[in-house]
Design brief:
Elements lengths: L19 E3 L6 E3 L4 E8 L3 H10 L9 E8 L1 H6 L35
Bound molecules: zinc ion (ZN).
């Protein structure tokens, strides 16, 4: 039978079984090697509240803590929330890792200098 991907969308190299994880979005069970994992770092308070806090704080050096969350999505949620995209038959043959976006301290993408 023809198959869509040679690894069936998984990273289960010669393992018989992989533990399941629970999707962060919908609660569906999904094998860990198949799940789409993203480590998100975001501020505990939103940008407008952060400005208010900075004006009212008693200590000058106080930094508002951040949330460090590992998100694990099932394939349906990853596609639906556009974390990953469906690729055409030809594009699926490209095995190079996607281009990484470099970000500065503020989290804005840094443009790469042409050499
Ligand atoms: Zn899900």
């Amino acid at each position: 039978m023809p198959k869509k991907r040679r690894n069936q969308g998984r990273n289960k190299n010669n393992r018989g079984h992989v533990k399941v994880i629970v999707c962060s979005n919908c609660g569906r069970r999904c094998p860990k090697d198949k799940a789409v994992k993203r480590f998100t770092i975001k501020d505990i308070v939103d940008a407008s509240s952060k400005k208010d806090l900075e004006e009212q704080r008693a200590f000058d050096q106080y930094v508002v803590p951040k949330l460090y969350i590992k998100m694990q999505y099932c394939i349906s949620c990853a596609i639906h929330s556009r974390i990953v995209k469906v690729r055409s038959v030809e594009d699926r043959r490209i095995r190079a890792p996607p281009q990484r976006v470099k970000r500065d301290a503020a989290g804005r993408p840094v443009e790469k200098k042409e050499e």
